[in-house]
User: Fold this.
Amino acid sequence: MTVRVGVVLFPGSNCELDAMRGVEQVGAEAETLWHGDDTVRGVDAVILPGGFAHGDYLRTGAIAQFSPVMRAVREFADAGGPVLGICNGFQVLTEARMLPGALQKNAGLKFLCTDVVVRVETTGSALTNQCVQGAELRIPINHFEGNYVCDDRMLAALQADERVVLRYVENPNGSLDDIAGICNDARNVVGLMPHPERAGDPLVGSADGVVLLRSLLVAAGAPVPVA
Amino acid sequence: MTMFAARIEVSHLPGIADPQGATVERALPALGFTNVAAVHIGKTIRLVLEAPDAAAAELQVAEMCERILANPVIEHYEITVEELVEA
Assistant:
């Protein structure tokens, strides 16, 4: 079975082509989902890509959460469908309360565009089911607002339920508890600041993003690849 | 119906880091302002709305704050509503 992945296009998204190419590279069919359409068109997985949806006005993701497509994405997620938010997509998922907490300006107020190393903290998520627990992956980040915050109670819950999916080995942005990515209670909705779709080939510095996108396809019903 | 001017002050919740405030606080001593502490940066939103009375206007602005104007996970808001008097 070929998995169909829908990549949501908001006005201001700019990583949708990278995301589509990334999942195509690991065997999926990819298509764009328009932010104004109230449907995910029967895809098997949804990606909210990086960029600056609605200009990041007010707060990152604040306007995008009210796009008609987000109603459909929420229904899809509630039915167990895998949803991945990358960078701005992660910000949209927190604003939409599909993931807890919020992302605010990096400590030090620097826009960060660099490779970071993240550690896989759980293999129980739509993004990491094909990873090795504790594996360290080199993935680029490219953000101004990646500094994850939540209240103490939520942090304790994230830690207790092993919902921190990825942690920075060296914290680049002040993120609480070195958090680079988290998942929801049902573990099918995942948000992360690093860009796995930009780490798809040694030619671009790293191919460590491949295993993450492959995990997403497995969560969407693709057969587990033979090692 | 009466016109009201609303002013919303959005600031960080206590305990939530304010990297903009912290950076400005570190920059001020470089200009000779060495006696400054507790710099916080938030935002002000102003809008005009029509409502039966000030209480109704404030209630509606509070709903806007909860749903979009502020993020209650990290932000606190304060609303001031004044009747708009034509000059």
Observations:
- Chain B has one domain: 2-83.
